[in-house]
Write a structure and sequence with these properties.
mainly alpha
Amino acid sequence: MLSHSWEIGYNVGLISPEMSSSKIGYRFDTLTKHFNNNNLVWRKRRRGI
C-alpha cells in the first residue's frame, strides 16, 4: 500500500523501529525495482552489468 501510494505521486513516510534506514531502502528497491534483496544486502552484482 505504501509503495502504491508513492507510485501514484503521494508523499509517504515509513517509521520502522526494527529496521535500519538502509534496510528499509533495500526492501523498497526490492518491491519497486524488482532487485534481489539478498544481492543488495550482500552487495553482489549480477553478471553482465
